[in-house]
Write a structure and sequence with these properties.
Blueprint: E1 5-7, H1 35-38, H2 42-57, E2 62-63, H3 64-71, H4 75-79, H5 81-90, E3 95-97, H6 107-113, H7 140-149, H8 156-165, H9 170-179
Antiparallel strand pairs: 1-2, 1-3
Helix pairs in contact: 2-5, 7-9
């Protein structure tokens, strides 16, 4: 177990667009409809969310022994650690691998590669500084239709959230619900 590493399948799906610092991870509502997720115990779910955070901090180089050291705080929990990790592996949320995954470029290097400027916490002193605001599309119905077609909206919960956010109702909302694949 000491020589094993953890990989997170489809890790890029959990990343927010751009290289944000500090890192934050998408937590999809569709997990509430995922039988594999719902069959996990509360402890296993907690370990999974902790794994996602540790994986982000280590840029994808996460050793099983480090996870145990950082996430398991009591001797009682330590007794079931391996069983919980195996359950996450069997459910497909993690992969236990024998060798260290290939190094991912550090966040700073990825920012340089994408030519993103370093972000400063201080606001510029220039009068041109304007806080970003949410941009509303000219045609919310068309915007949601495109999200459904492009696979951005996966289920009814996500669709209803978008419909409510754009304040659509009546026949437009019903048409959008009918477009969602079952």
């Amino acid at each position: 177990m000491n020589d094993e590493w953890i990989a997170i399948p489809r890790w890029d799906e959990f990343q927010h667009y751009g290289n944000r610092d500090p890192v934050w991870i998408k937590n999809y509502l569709r997990l509430l409809r995922d039988d594999n997720y719902l069959e996990l115990t509360l402890s296993q779910r907690g370990i999974l969310h902790g794994l996602w955070m540790l994986y982000a901090v280590t840029d994808g180089a996460l050793k099983v022994s480090v996870v145990k050291r950082d996430l398991v705080l009591t001797r009682g929990a330590s007794k079931y650690f391996r069983e919980n990790i195996e359950a996450l592996n069997q459910a497909g949320f993690i992969a236990i691998v024998a060798s260290k995954p290939l190094a991912r470029p550090s966040r700073a290097k990825r920012r340089v590669e994408k030519k993103e400027p370093e972000r400063s916490r201080a606001k510029p002193e220039t009068p041109q500084y304007v806080a970003k605001q949410n941009v509303q599309p000219a045609d919310p119905f068309k915007a949601i239709t495109n999200m459904i077609r492009n696979g951005v909206i996966h289920d009814r919960i996500e669709l209803d959230a978008e419909i409510a956010g754009y304040r659509l109702n009546g026949t437009l909302a019903d048409e959008l619900r009918e477009m969602l694949p079952r």
